């Protein structure tokens, strides 16, 4: 039933958020452990965490039986043409490495409207109509140029504390963009964090789902986060993202809904855990992989 869904994991599930941070697991240990846990697909994580020489990275992944599914970039396209050159410089580096290591996707995450460490408000959480127009137009341009220059498909990742987060914002974004150019990376944890229903989104906008991140939130911690207005970074340190099957949404119906689309999809496990003890990720990763196998994935 789930034979068209390819399961993987990412540096995020090892507590990696930054290219270089002494509290994070070293990249060789991440590669060793993600393979040991039973995954065969990985994402690049923050650019510079894994080797950026594609020949070296291909060698390091191949000898562990791993392949790269996607790279990730952060963008602020709602700010218009003024940010294009800096955006493209960043995107180009990541897209080239993703292409040269065999990936076919580029995950695009909108910029945060508040600081994910301090909760300082950086921008208004609601975009103006003109900013929505700029976001849609900029994303379509990015999709075209990434496709033409690097042969990759972009998948836009709704994310907590960004302007593409709630069901209202996600559907507005989808309705404003060309379905032939722009699809989603549906992160089940972030969507639940922001009050969305992943199964309903898949059933309603199935043709726009191009990639999955599998994640759960702890509903009790989330209730406290919402009540206090806690920013995403501190919420992660509070344990808002949890090991499946302990949280929401239930992943079995999400995977079943995705399987009904009858398309090839990556489903990459991402349990935000920054920062975490270095020995914490591997046992969780092994249990999560076993759980997903019990779901048929």
TrEMBL record:
Segments forming domain Xylose isomerase-like TIM barrel: 31-294
UniProt-listed Pfam families: AP_endonuc_2
InterPro entries: IolE/XylAMocC-like, Xyl_isomerase-like_sf, Xyl_isomerase-like_TIM-brl
Family matches, as SUPFAM superfamilies: Xylose isomerase-like
Superkingdom of origin organism: Bacteria
PANTHER family: HYDROXYPYRUVATE ISOMERASE, INOSOSE DEHYDRATASE
Name by which UniProt lists this protein: TIM barrel protein
Organism of derivation: Streptomyces mobaraensis
């Amino acid at each position: 039933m789930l034979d068209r869904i390819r399961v993987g994991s990412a540096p995020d599930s090892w507590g990696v958020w930054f290219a270089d941070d002494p509290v994070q697991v070293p990249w060789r240990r991440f590669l060793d452990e993600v393979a040991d846990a039973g995954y065969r697909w990985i994402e690049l994580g923050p650019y510079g965490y894994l080797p950026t020489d594609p020949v070296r990275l291909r060698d390091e992944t191949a000898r562990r039986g791993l392949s790269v599914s996607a790279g990730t970039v952060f963008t602020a396209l709602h700010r218009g043409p003024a940010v294009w050159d800096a955006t493209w410089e960043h995107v180009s580096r990541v897209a080239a490495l993703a292409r040269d290591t065999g990936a076919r996707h580029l995950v695009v995450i909108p910029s945060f409207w508040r600081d994910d460490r301090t909760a300082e408000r950086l921008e208004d959480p609601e975009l103006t109509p003109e900013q929505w127009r700029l976001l849609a137009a900029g994303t379509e341009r990015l999709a075209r140029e990434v496709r033409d220059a690097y042969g990759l498909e972009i998948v836009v990742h709704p994310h907590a504390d960004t302007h593409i987060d709630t069901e209202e914002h996600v559907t507005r974004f989808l309705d404003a963009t060309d379905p032939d150019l722009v699809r989603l990376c549906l992160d089940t944890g972030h969507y639940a964090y922001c009050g969305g229903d992943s199964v309903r989104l898949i059933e309603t906008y199935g043709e726009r789902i191009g990639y999955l991140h599998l994640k759960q939130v702890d509903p009790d911690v989330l209730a406290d986060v919402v009540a206090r207005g806690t920013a995403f970074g501190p919420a992660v340190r509070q344990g808002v993202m949890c090991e499946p099957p302990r949280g929401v949404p239930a992943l079995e119906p999400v995977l079943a809904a995705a399987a009904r689309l009858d398309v090839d999809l990556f489903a990459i496990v991402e349990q935000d855990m920054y920062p975490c003890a270095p020995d914490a990720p591997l046992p969780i990763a092994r249990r999560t992989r076993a759980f997903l196998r019990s779901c048929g994935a």
